[in-house]
Fold each of these.
Amino acid sequence: MRICRFNHDKLGLVQGEEIIDVTAALEVLPALRWPVPQCDPLVAALPEVLKAALDLMPNARRVPLASVTLNSPVSYATKLPAAPVNYLKHMAEAQGDPATFHAHHLKKIEEVGLFLKASSSLVGAGDGVALRQLDRRNDHELELAVIIGKKADRVPVESALDYVAGYAIGLDMTVRGPEERSLRKSIDSYSVLGPWITTPDEVGDPSQLDIELYVNGELRQRANTRDLVIGIPKLISWASEYYTLLPGDVIFTGTPDGVGPVVPGDIIRASIEKVGEMEVNVRAA
């Protein structure tokens, strides 16, 4: 299934070029009081919500997909772990451009480990990217995003995929410079997630997915997740060794070669096989 959040407060199931409005399924969520849970309540209760949504589908309102604003399908994440230089060709690309990629950022992923992006940087495809630091280079980085569905604490690699609620397209936007990744990649709107959550049963093996990104119709990035240095089960397990992953946390799995600059007015079109396709407008903050 493909589960979307649209027009800020509505829940939908995506079928073809339509959205089935199943917002009423959110009634199964428990009422929240302080202290609120440290997770996305929708993702934590996704099986129950989907059961209610399926009951609503026959009589639910349908709206054209093109007529809505798609927001981040995850409304709240406690953390956004991200994998640096997790494609060998991207490492080679970065090593060949020292003017853009600072040397102290080019250690192998096994040496540098994961980094965290601020959860406040999370937006949806329809929200767009609002660039800051316009005197510096701002780049797109296309990634498969993994949405955690249940509490994961020191999970083994062999069962790591059991903790996945679904997959989405992630844009790990970044300002180039000497500062640490977590600063340059945590700007508001620099973590684009969308266009929806695609459940694992539709995706199948996440290590065999073609990914592509275009800017203004020009192909910039094309790869397959089989080329990841550290695969998705290991990334989940590795992250959970250091911090408990909670429902709604999103792992950005790394970008291939072809990263490049964007400026206000550009249109990014990104797609991942079996997951979906999204268009993202770039503007100045």
Amino acid sequence: MDCRKNTSLLIWTACALFAPPVFAAKVTLVGLIGSKAIIVIDGRAPRTLAPGQKTAEGVMLLATEKDAASFEIDGKKTVLRMGQAYSAARASRQSVTLNADTRGHFVTMGSINGGSVRFLVDTGATFVSLPAGEARRLGIDYLRGQRGQMQTANGVATAYRVTLDSVRIGDIEVNNVDAVVSEGDALGVTLLGMSFLNRMEMKRDGISMTLSKRY
């Protein structure tokens, strides 16, 4: 149906109803005025949003802070600081697909605080969990963390609760991740537990698992 060639109100309305939705490809926070935010969408003229106000491109301002603002963009929550941009193309790349090994385990290389780590995905682990030797190699001063006990497959071990600056696999990076470090040999591998996985959307398809970062 060609909307330009039909002047009937009924036909015009049908064209409008069935037109594909417009979504923002790039949103940049360029200014803050009190509780309002000034944004640029896809390089067009700046516009000002009040809390709760939503644009036709699916951008809604939730709240502002001193130098940042939180938005709902295309149905996903994201926080932008002054001058920072949200890119839908970039967001779509923040996912990784893992394939199970011959034992059915999902193992992947990644990093903790910038240091290379081999992870075993474990949805039964509450936290990202790593052996003390691995923590020392990564420069984590775990002895300053909260001390406690941890039940492992090899028994009870002394463990320390810490916060990791960053955990990364593929294009996905998450900051301020709760973790535990276990002493001794009770934990022989670094577990990618739910303190990281809870911030993902997980989809299982046969021997494949896709993790996508939530916004």
Amino acid sequence: MLSIPTPVAFALIAVIGYFIGRRTRRHAQLETDQARRELKRAKAVASELETIAEAVRKNLATHHSSINHFKDRVRDLSGHQKETAWQELCKEAEEMLKPTLRLAAQIAHAYDEIRQQSNHLMTFTEIRTDPLTRVSNRRALDETLETMFALLNRYEQRFVVVILDIDHFKKVNDAQGHLQGDRTLQNVARVIDETVRDTDMVARYGGEEFVVVMPHTDAAGACVFADRVRSKIASMLDVTISGGVAVALDGDSPQSLLTRADAALYSAKAAGRNRIFQHTGVDIIPAQELEPATAV
């Protein structure tokens, strides 16, 4: 039998241990970075909920003061039988109605905002997280889009969706195996998740497709973001991505919005891949033809 000198054996063990330790440390670092991003996002959600609660508290306090004033005026006028007293009471009721309706609208808006932040909180639960990439899954995406469309319909709060797809992903699986394909998905998801804002939502949409929901963003800003992700992935990884951008418009639904973004993505693929296109609602154009961004 072939015998290995003791010093050589120790050297081999040291080299193997070095590479195992290096890989373990790298994996641990990735988990630490993800935990840090999730913690930052959770703090942003908590801060937003605190802001909403404080606004509601102030509005309720103001309205309570108005109610007390109204009660005092009713008590003062209750002993009078003259027509002028009745007219004064009607005037006081009219004045009371305005802040009451305003408070009702403010509470309704706060409810929608809390619902939106609740969706952000739900992305931390396992049933709304993609087990491979650790970003949100399709269920979380559907719930987020439902909330975003409610805000759009009630308050005209615009938002954008971006679909990003890995170019020639099948070749990665065929040439390097599904294990490397999984690593590629994880790395692409990590780059996207590191690039978005705390208020944005990243979800795995399909096999190698990811969707980013961006509130309070215009088309130009979303295109700048998408191109930034595209450039980072092209420089950091061994793959490229293509993207489609679409702004939610009046009359849109979650399905129609995703369909328009997907059509823009298909145009990016047809134009040669590794590029971003936008669906304007009428036409599909390259992202480079838009005006400079103003939102991101």
